Amino acid sequence: MVIKIIRYLPRTEENLVVIKQILRSVTSMGANSQEADGASSKKDFLHCFTTVRKEAKETEFWLKLIVELNLKAQVSGRKLIEECRQIIAIVSKIISNTRN
Predict the structure, then answer these.
(1) What separation in angstroms does the CA of 59 have from each of 39, 47, 63, 81, 96?
(2) Which residues form a coiled coil (predicted)?
(3) In a domain? residue 5
(4) pTM to 2 decimal places
(5) Looking at residue 70, what DSSP letter applies?
(6) Helical residues (DSSP H) of the chain, grouped into ranges
(7) Residue-averaged pLDDT of the chain
(8) 38 in helix, strand or coil?
């Protein structure tokens, strides 16, 4: 889980920026996914999952930075990057299937 990995990052100036951004993007993914569950229309559902996909792509970017900046986070960071890519693929399929 992303939140667990950032707990152990050194509080350098660079990491603090990344931590703030990744917390925002990863929590937005979860919130929008939950919002989609209660969507009142197909359009609303698609909007929520489109936001989830955008936030997942942003989260992947921040995870890559964490891996680059922190040697101790490389193994768990790479696993999270792969999970993020899987989420992007799943959400993209949900969006595609809903549109068709």
Answers:
(1) 24, 18, 6, 8, 21
(2) none
(3) no
(4) 0.91
(5) -
(6) 2-7, 13-37, 42-69, 74-99
(7) 95
(8) coil
Containing domain of residue 78, as a range? 14-99
Residue 77's domain is classified under what CATH number?
1.20.1440.60
Alpha carbon dihedral 77, 75, 71, 61, in 10-degree steps, equals -20
Residue 8 included in any domain? no
- Give pLDDT tens digits for 58-90: 999 999 999 999 888 889 999 999 999 999 999
Torsion sign over Cα 17, 20, 24, 26: positive
Q: Within a domain: residue 79?
A: yes
- Residue 48 in tokens: 């929520």
Number of domains in the chain: 1
